[in-house]
Design a protein that fits this description.
This protein is α+β, with helices and mostly antiparallel strands. The chain contains eleven helices and 20 strands.
């Protein structure tokens, strides 16, 4: 009875928070870009409009991010059925760079004209529009963490791409592919849902979900183990700056009767916190304590918990862990 009652509260809160999020999602740059046409005759025309409307490099970079996220959809069919990769030969570094540029030119033109792309098209278009706005921009390729099944993987793979853009002498991390939406496994389709959190993302959050092929960022090594074995975090974690202090690994070893200690910084007792058991029922966290700017609580590990556990705050998924039974 309590579970059913909590389910009703969950639905009611979801409606309230959805309205609140819509009101807060867009900044002033986004609101201007939302009024832009869906179609421009050329990328040059779009860049000219952006450069006319915005003067700071930061606003231009955000406007490019927003327009792409609003208008280019992820091509999930192309992701499932990728074309055969076409290699090329070269004899000099200059020839190599010329051929890479030709490839990226085809990618951004296809994305711009078809309004569909996978990550390579998103990143190529972002780089091209940035350069038309006199912004220095690069494409980074690497691995991504998008599912609970990614927690504890043994190896990384090159399956994703994102951008870095130089603004006010500082490189900013951009993932416009994830900014436009996400794949909903329960519905079996892509969901268009603009998210600003992948524009100028804090590196600590960004590299919890991304791992560059080079293994480094701006000359500093990034821990592959932390990426592979860390917990899975979500958009709302980044948006609300919910830092996961404990457990410090995404893999929890436990036996029945153990208590899993959880600490989430910047959460409070005013938040509704719960997790889902393996029957997908919401279990409300009670008697959580605020301490040092964090919310601390325990989850008893028993046979109602499956292979993974996801913690929610105010109806939003925040963090997932993999459970390994001792």
């Amino acid at each position: 009875m309590k579970t059913r009652r909590f389910g009703f509260i969950f639905l009611l809160l979801n409606i309230i928070f959805t309205c609140s999020v819509l009101a807060q999602k867009y900044n002033e740059v986004d609101k201007i870009v939302l009024k832009y046409p869906k179609n421009f005759s050329s990328t040059e025309e779009l860049a000219e409009r952006i450069n006319d409307d915005f003067k700071s490099d930061y606003d231009k970079a955000r406007a490019i991010y927003s327009w792409i996220a609003f208008n280019i959809k992820y091509d999930y069919n192309a992701y499932l059925n990728p074309p055969k990769s076409q290699g090329f030969s070269y004899s000099t570094e200059a020839e190599k760079q010329r051929k890479i540029k030709e490839l990226n030119d085809r990618l951004f033109q296809k994305a711009f004209s078809s309004k569909k792309a996978v990550c390579e098209g998103f990143t190529a278009l972002y780089k091209h529009l940035s350069e038309l706005s006199d912004l220095k921009c690069e494409i980074i390729r690497g691995d991504s963490k998008i599912s609970v099944r990614d927690i504890g993987r043994k190896n990384t793979s090159s399956n994703h791409a994102w951008n870095i853009v130089l603004i006010n002498k500082k490189w900013r991390l951009i993932d416009v592919t994830w900014g436009q939406g996400y794949y909903d496994s329960s519905k079996g389709r892509m969901v268009t849902d603009f998210s600003p959190v992948y524009f100028d993302t804090d590196p600590d959050y960004f590299f919890a979900k991304h791992y560059p092929d080079s293994g480094s960022y701006l000359g500093e090594r990034i821990s592959k183990d932390d990426f592979l074995n860390g917990p899975l975090i979500y958009n709302k974690t980044i948006e609300n700056d919910f830092k996961i202090k404990s457990p410090n690994s995404g893999i929890i070893e436990a036996k029945y009767g153990d208590k899993i200690d959880v600490e989430i910084k910047n959460a409070s007792r005013s938040n509704q916190v719960f997790y889902l058991n393996k029957r997908n029922q919401a279990v409300l966290i009670k008697n959580a304590k605020e301490k040092r700017g964090s919310l601390e609580f325990q989850i008893p590990y028993d046979n109602t918990i499956g292979d993974y556990i996801t913690i929610f705050i105010d109806t939003n998924s925040i963090v997932s862990f993999k459970i390994v039974q001792k």
